[in-house]
Specification:
The complex is a heterodimer of chains A (354) and B (340).
Chain A (H helix, E strand, L loop, with lengths): L27 H26 L13 H8 L7 E3 L5 H7 L3 H8 L12 E2 L9 H15 L5 E6 L6 H12 L4 E7 L2 E2 L2 E2 H4 L16 E5 L3 H16 L5 E6 L18 H11 L1 H11 L5 H24 L7 H4 L7 H15 L3
Helix pairs in contact in A: 1-2, 1-3, 1-10, 1-11, 2-3, 2-8, 4-11, 5-6
Chain B lengths: L5 H5 L5 E5 H15 L3 E5 L15 H5 L4 E3 L4 H13 L3 E5 L10 H8 L2 H4 L9 E6 L14 H5 L5 E3 L4 H13 L4 E6 L7 E5 L11 E4 L4 E5 L3 H14 L4 E5 L2 E3 L3 H11 L2 E8 L4 H13 L8 E5 L10 H4 L3 H13 L1
Parallel strand pairs in B: 2-3, 2-4, 5-7, 6-7, 10-11, 10-13, 13-14
Antiparallel strand pairs in B: 1-8, 6-12, 9-11
Helix pairs in contact in B: 2-8, 4-5, 9-13, 10-11
The chains are: A alpha/beta (354), B alpha/beta (340).
Chain lengths: 354, 340
């Protein structure tokens, strides 16, 4: 089965073309866009980790190592598409156009962090794989409306063991819905390695059961991610139904800031391999190899990103304090009496100044 | 939300049809499919087959395969895709073939259906009506007969509705479809074809959250819903022969409960029997007692009695008559609170 799903790659670890078929589609603007977004979300991720260590953010899910997978897939979306993320996909959300201060707010325990104006971004699915049927449903509605919009569901390797993975894929396949199922196989579901997650050698081969295309790509090669996801979206928009993409990647750090990866893997080995698998480094090598590198632009871009992130942190920290009424106000459109009474009693008790 | 009281509707009897409860459900679904293009029905066997109880009979032929959709056998898929449909502007009405089959979809309901509004501060909502036949007494196989309402009344973000008559079934179902929030609509399968009633044609609503007095008396208040309403009425009739008269209340909505109709009756009678076929522990009956304590404690002349299913799994049908509350058990409870 593994032979049927070879890892698709366009640019190798040295930053050289391993497949030149996409060469004509590469423009300096596209390369710069790749680099800008990957650098931006990596800087965000590192900053978020450091803010968590300082006690200025709650527990945070790191994605360093998965930048190519997230940026490449998100850049292949159109503005009115739907995104159904997990909570490790805020890199993709930021690339798609999520509001950065609000992404910080999410990690600071604020529900306002789930609201991203002008983009169809569903709140991250906290249970595993439950967002796959949602992506199918939203795509179904687009199909009924007769639009060209599609949806993407992000999920990890662990999600493929859940029932909802099957139910979402099966629905999308039976009803030929415009969905891209984008798996980031980072090798671990918290501590459980993929070998203990499943007996099949690839995630992509699971597509066979649904009669849909399955594509296995080098998730650290942004060119592979971008061009293959775009193809899947083209198919979706043309009414050809869903695609399952397996982006093989790595998470360099912990599952979250509350996790210690040295307990379940050889972290020294992971750190030593970074040189070979780091997606940002690969793009940098590519840019240098083919004459896209401009040190001045990189320096300027780095500064600009750092300033944007600092501003976003300021905005997050200056965000008005949470309103206690919000605890009660968004359960139903019209508040049923039990909630109304509980709200009135509670507000009265805290107004009492105890 | 615009609400037409049932009483108003009943004055308009010239445009009624004699329907069973299940036919009233079909009528409501057809009426709303015609009324609102966003309405889409999805579930197992609901299309060509018209549903295992024929609740959707004829609707696919009339409204097409893309409005009345036969889905794969997949409860989480049905409810999960309904979340996506609803958030993107449709009004899905998923059918779960039997309420006892809803457990695979429990996660979707608990973690998404009920929370989308809260998690997005009302920026996204998922209006949908989850329809499911429920309850024992039709000699169904295992698991088909559960009364699982308490799981859902305990879950913030979803309303729970349970009609006991054809007219209420149609009006409540239309109100549920028009409701901006998710509703679990429990259809008592024992009453699906138990009797007929003149049901108004066209669109009308019975307000969610309002109970209804179905018998009038002074001595005891009997509270029930769904398939237990006829049982409660039977028991009240029998008690009358012994000189005890009862108010019988059909709750119709289990979240939010109609606390006013309970308080009004209880403050008159001072004695209460709550009847539900769901298991006793943590059942909705306990919430009703808690409400009575809050609103009417000083009016009470006896402790409240509960007549419920036992705290055992709904049995194989050879024993279901022992599990289900009977008029006799309810009548004994009425006498007990009366003579306390």
């Amino acid at each position: 089965m593994e032979d049927l799903y070879p890892i698709k790659q366009y640019v190798d670890k040295e930053g050289k073309f391993s497949d030149e078929s996409i060469k004509d589609e590469i423009t300096p603007e596209l390369v710069k866009e790749f680099y800008y977004h990957m650098l931006r979300i990596r800087t965000f991720d590192r900053k978020a980790k450091s803010l968590q260590r300082q006690g200025r953010l709650g527990t945070y899910a790191l994605f360093e190592g998965q930048e190519a997978a997230q940026v490449g897939s998100a850049l292949s979306l159109e503005k009115d598409d739907w995104v159904f993320p997990t909570y490790r996909d805020h890199g993709a959300l930021l690339t798609f156009g999520a509001n950065m201060p609000r992404v910080f707010l999410y990690w600071n325990g604020r529900v306002e962090g789930n609201i991203h104006p002008d983009r169809n971004i569903f709140p991250p699915a906290v249970p595993i794989a439950t967002q796959l049927p949602h992506a199918a449903g939203a795509a179904w509605a687009e199909k009924r409306k007769g639009t060209k919009n599609a949806s993407i569901a992000y999920f990890g390797d662990g999600a493929t063991s859940e029932g909802d993975f099957h139910e979402g894929m099966n629905f999308a396949s039976v009803f030929k819905l415009p969905v891209v199922f984008f798996n980031q196989n980072n090798g671990f579901a918290i501590s459980v390695p993929i070998e203990k997650q499943m007996n099949s050698k690839t995630v992509a081969q699971k597509s066979v059961a649904y009669g849909i295309p399955g594509v296995r790509i080098d998730g650290n090669d942004i060119f592979a991610v971008y061009f293959e996801t775009k193809k899947a979206f083209d198919r979706a928009r043309n009414g050809e139904g869903p695609t399952l993409i397996e982006a093989v990647t790595q998470r360099f750090g912990a599952h979250t800031t509350a996790d210690d990866p040295t307990k379940y893997r050889d972290q020294e080995k992971v750190d030593a391999e970074r040189e070979k698998v780091d997606p940002l480094l690969r793009l940098e090598r590519f840019m240098k190899e083919y004459g896209y590198w401009n040190a001045e632009w990189v320096e300027e871009t780095t500064k600009q990103i750092e300033a944007e992130i600092e501003d976003a942190i300021v905005e997050m920290e200056r965000f008005p304090a949470p309103n206690v009424e919000d605890l009660f106000d968004h359960v139903f459109e019209e508040m049923p009496w039990p909630i109304k009474e509980q709200k009135e009693d509670y507000l009265e008790s805290i107004r009492g100044g105890n | 939300m615009k609400v037409v009281e049932r009483e108003t509707v009943e004055t308009n009897k010239q445009t009624t049809r004699s329907l069973t409860l299940v036919q009233a459900v079909t009528d409501a679904l057809g009426t709303m499919l015609a009324e609102d293009d966003r309405v889409i029905l999805l579930g197992e066997d609901i299309g060509k087959n018209g549903g295992v109880f024929r609740a959707t009979e004829g609707l696919q032929a009339q409204y097409g395969e893309d409005r009345v959709v036969d889905t794969p056998l997949s409860e989480a898929g049905i409810i999960g895709s309904s979340v996506g449909l609803a958030v993107n502007g449709m009004i899905p009405i998923p059918e779960i073939q039997f309420l006892g089959f809803i457990y695979p979809a429990f996660e979707q309901i608990a973690t998404h259906v009920t929370r989308v509004r809260m998690r997005t501060m009302s920026n996204y909502t998922v209006p949908m009506v989850i329809r499911a036949p429920y309850g024992a007494g039709v000699r169904a196989p295992e698991i088909h007969s559960d009364s699982a309402e308490a799981f859902f009344t305990h879950m913030p973000g979803i309303k729970v509705v349970c009609p006991s008559t054809p007219t209420d079934a149609k009006g409540l179902l239309i109100a549920a479809i028009k409701d901006p929030d998710p509703v679990l609509f429990m259809e008592p399968m024992r009453l699906y074809r138990a009797f007929r009633e003149d049901v108004p044609e066209g669109v009308y609503e019975v307000e969610i959250g309002k109970g209804k007095k179905v018998a009038e008396g002074d001595d005891v208040t009997v509270i029930a819903w769904g398939a237990m309403v006829p049982v409660a009425r039977d028991a009240a009739e029998k008690a009358k022969a012994k000189g005890i008269t009862c108010d019988v209340i059909d709750m119709r909505t289990l979240f939010p409960l109609d606390k006013d109709i309970i308080a009004e009756s209880v403050q008159k009678t001072g004695r209460v029997v709550v009847v539900h076929e769901a298991h006793e522990t943590s059942g909705v009956g306990n919430d009703i007692i808690s409400l009575i304590n809050k609103t009417s404690f000083l009016y009470m002349k006896a402790p409240v009695e509960k007549v419920t299913g036992f705290d055992v799994p709904v049995p194989f049908f050879a024993l279901e008559d022992h599990f289900l509350p009977t008029p006799k058990r309810v009548e004994e409870a009425i006498e007990k609170v009366y003579r306390f």
